[in-house]
Structures are given as structure tokens and as C-alpha cells.
Write a structure and sequence with these properties.
Elements lengths: L4 H7 L9 H4 L11 H23 L13 H6 L2 H10 L4 E5 L6 H13 L5 E5 H9 L10 H6 L6 E5 L8 H17 L3 E6 L3 H8 L1 H10 E5 L12
Parallel strand pairs: 1-4, 1-5, 2-3, 3-4
Length: 236
């Protein structure tokens, strides 16, 4: 009895140098797919589209969706790529990413978000002012969700990026809200949070409070981008 076509396909070793061919073409390394270049272009297009959809879903700026993981200017100064890796590999930490404008702090954080995508970990990006706005919106009598539900949005992601901390509400309400979110994420044990600010260390610690800064020392770090080159100034 002749083996079925399905059985024959299972027993034959597929040619594995083309991601598309692995699904719809059986050949060998000596008999490659005649449309390899076309298939590789398809794979690259799909990869970029999936990455853009992921970044869009996190709320991060789309301009960072296709940004390079490595930048020779930043790597030469040291620290940028290391910051990406530290955030990516952390399992329940709080990081402060501080320094002047234009040094690639947000890009480093978004690159870390893109990396954790491959580890099946969810991520979210938000501006600091949006955190307070989303919670205050629940106090409106026409609100469709309550305060607890609004805060929960920032508790569940394994990786949370809060950008522009320097623009956050400096009132007691704003500080208590930030501390509450960080406390609950810290208590979960497997939630990593990154706070980005255009501040120096002294300004940052005063803004987030000694308690938050202390926890960063315990299970994270305050990463100073002060020595990183300004990406907004063209290289000489």
C-alpha cells in the first residue's frame, strides 16, 4: 500500500533555510526553493508588521518600533546596550532611567520591550501624566470604570515603562498614586518597572521619594544616561 502524501511529507526532511518554505515547500539544501529571495522578503515584511503591531499595542511611540537594538555611537560611550539588557533580563525590578534629553532613554526602554516580546511577556508604555489622568477620570459620574480598574491597568504588565516622570503630577495625590502602583508591582515579585526622567539623580530621588529610590537600590538601579551622546545631534 502506497504511503499517504501526509506521511511522506512527515518522513522527508524539509529544506530549512527559508521560513516560508518550512511551511509550504519540501526540498533539500541541494535543491533550494526557487523563490528564496521572494520568501525572505515576505518573512522580513511579516516580521516588521508583527513588531509594529506589538509596539502599537503597548502604547509606545511608533517611531521606536523599528529603531536599531544597537547604536555604534551609544555603544561606544558605554552603557546604552547594557541598560537594554538589564531591563530585558530583570525579573521584578524597578529602574530609574535618568539624564539629559535626546540620549536614547526611551529608545532603550522600548528596545527592551521589543526583546521581552520574544519571551511571551506582556509590556506597556505610558506617560506619567496619563497615569494620573486615567485615575482621575474615574471620579466623573459618567465614568465607565472605577479607580481600582484604572489602577489595575498598570499592575498587570510584566514590564511597565512610565516615561516623562519629570512631567508627573507633583501633588500628594500624584506621589501617592505612583507609590501605590510601584508598591503593588514590587510586591508581585515578577513585575519590572522603568521610570524615565530628564533629571539628574538628586532631582529624580526628590521627585519619586526616598522609599521608591531605596527599592531601586535593592532590586534594580538608577541608570544615569548623562554620559550617553545626544542622538538628536548629527554625528560629526
Amino acid at each position: 500500500m502506497q504511503p499517504s502524501l501526509r506521511a511522506e511529507r512527515i518522513t522527508r526532511k524539509p529544506w530549512t533555510h527559508c521560513a516560508v518554505c518550512r511551511r509550504d515547500y519540501e526540498g533539500t539544501e541541494d535543491d533550494p526553493c526557487p523563490q528564496t529571495d521572494k520568501h525572505e522578503a515576505i518573512c522580513e515584511f511579516n516580521r516588521k508588521r508583527e513588531l509594529e503591531e506589538f509596539v502599537r499595542g503597548t502604547g509606545a511611540p511608533m517611531r521606536h518600533a523599528a529603531a536599531a537594538f544597537s547604536d555604534e555611537r551609544l555603544d561606544a560611550a558605554g552603557g546604552w546596550l547594557d541598560a537594554v539588557k538589564r531591563i530585558e533580563n530583570a525579573g521584578g525590578a524597578i529602574f530609574g532611567l535618568i539624564g539629559p534629553r535626546g540620549t536614547g532613554k526611551t529608545q532603550a526602554a522600548v528596545c527592551a520591550m521589543r526583546a521581552v516580546r520574544g519571551q511571551s511577556r506582556d509590556a506597556q508604555y505610558t506617560l506619567a501624566v496619563e497615569v494620573g489622568q486615567s485615575v482621575r477620570a474615574t471620579y466623573n459620574r459618567h465614568a465607565t470604570r472605577n479607580e481600582r480598574e484604572a489602577i489595575e491597568r498598570y499592575l498587570s504588565p510584566r514590564l511597565l515603562i512610565v516615561d516623562e516622570i519629570h512631567e508627573a503630577d507633583g501633588s500628594r495625590f500624584g506621589q501617592r498614586l505612583l507609590t501605590q502602583i510601584l508598591d503593588k508591582r514590587y510586591g508581585a515579585g515578577d513585575r519590572t518597572t522603568v521610570l524615565i526622567a530628564n533629571m539628574n539623580r538628586k532631582q529624580f530621588v526628590a521627585h519619586v521619594g526616598e522609599s521608591v529610590a531605596s527599592r531601586m537600590t535593592e532590586c534594580g538601579a538608577i541608570i544615569d544616561a548623562g554620559s550617553w551622546p545626544n542622538r538628536r545631534i548629527p554625528a560629526a
